[in-house]
Amino acid sequence: MLKGKTVLIGVSGGIAAYKMVNVASMLVKLGAEVHVIMTENAKNFINPIAFETITKTKCLIDTFDRNFQFNVAHVSVGQKADVMLIAPATANIIGKMANGIADDMLSTVAISATCKRIVSPAMNTYMFRNAIVQDNIAKLKRFGFEIIEPASGMLACGDVGEGRLPEESVLVDYVIREIAYEKDLAGKKVLITAGPTREAIDPVRYITNHSSGKMGCALAKVAMLRGADVTLVAGPITAKIPPFVNVVDIVSAKDMFEAVTSRADEQDIIIKAAAVADYRPKNVADEKMKKKDDDMSIEMERTDDILAYLGAHKKSGQVLCGFSMETQSLIENSTKKLEKKNADMIVANSLKDAGAGFGTDTNIVTLITREGNEQLPIMSKEEVASNILDKLVSML
Q1: What are phi and psi for residue 229, nearest 5 degrees?
Q2: Which of 115, 157, 217, 321 is catalytic?
């Protein structure tokens, strides 16, 4: 995912410095070239050899180190990087960066770097809350630094409160969001539905389907990484919800209909990837079941057709995409759906194809538009999401 990208990690002298070895390892596994700069105090918590072993690059510490190639290290590494992550960021390094003090390698590179700089403060709760530290953090924000809010919990000193370095995966997520994709959806609003809905029969039972929400979550993740402001309307899904998206939790088809239609006018792209239950029990609040001998029958009614409503009320310039899951006549039925629902694209996939359908990590789809059909080979759902978004972006 990060092949060809360069990540610069700055480690200052906090107890959480040891976590950054795992962060560096995770980034290397994603294909990034990783360089690490440490302060002298950081060496008290973690040995530079640990970073050098993981990254296969020299760990920079001394501004005046003579053991380097013929370039100015604090300028070249700062210009080469696609993103710089300073974590853990102590009150000391935050104060230096906020006030233009460059008296060691880390502060010098942080000030001279031309890439996006992400800062993750980590310190004692009372130090973090100090008005001077908070003013320095606010100053960094004004200067274009991105701040990762610290986690809360038990600190190394025994105090409880905010000030913990977030989990390593959270730090990596910030890096991925910044550099994994070109931001061709920056400034665009994208609404995506995911997962199943549940239609209550009684307080115990409900009607639903096998949707895990993986495809919808993959779409939300890739759209977010491409710079979109993403709203994910999610039923009771089992898939992992991606970070940095606005999540609206729903249960029933009616909940989803109201959540989507109330936000539809604000969106540039709407993707209905959810597998909504087609029917719900009628008059659930009244007589729900009628006994016939030992059997029970339930009167059913159709749920609201979200895609049809969106197609009928589509605003100018808006792009609408639906999904079609069929067991037969896949292309024919999906093409009819495209026309009937007034969608711009239908993503068709068959439950009969191995590697496609509910709960899998892969999918096999055909992209159906008025200009023609494009069948994609089996690929991961994240790769499918990229192809879907490529097509939708071309329609904007």
Answers
A1: -85, 105
A2: 157
Contact criterion met (CB below 8 Å) for 34 and 2: no
Q: Give the helix ranges, DSSP H, for 151-250.
A: 168-179, 214-225
Joined together, the tokens standing for residue 126 give 């009372």
Residue 253 backbone zone (phi > 0: left; psi -120 to 50: alpha; other: beta): alpha
Whether the domain at 6-179 and the domain at 189-393 fall into the same CATH topology: yes
Instruction: Give the C-alpha separation, 307 to 270, whole Å.
Output: 10
Catalytic residue check, 157: yes
**The pLDDT value given to residue 288:** 47
pLDDT tens for each residue of 61-120: 987 665 555 454 556 777 889 999 999 999 999 999 999 999 999 999 999 999 999 999
- Domain 6-179 belongs in CATH node 1.10.150.20: no
What CATH fold (topology level) applies to the domain 189-393? Rossmann fold (3.40.50)
DSSP per residue, 31-77: T-EEEEEE-TGGGGTS-HHHHHHHHSSPPB--TT-S-S-SS-HHHHH
Residue 142: the pLDDT is 97
For residue 28, CA distances in Å to 119, 150, 155, 363 come to: 20, 24, 28, 27
> Which ranges constitute the DSSP H helices of 231-371?
253-261, 306-312, 330-341
Q: Please tell me the pTM assigned to this model.
A: 0.89
Please report, for the chain, the start and end positions of each structural domain, with discontinuous segments joined by +.
6-179, 189-393
Q: How many residues does the chain have?
A: 396
Q: Report residues of the chain scoring pLDDT below 70.
A: 64-75, 283-297
Answer whether the bond into residue 236 is a cis peptide, omega within 30°. Answer: no
**Residue labelled with tokens 């994609």:** 376
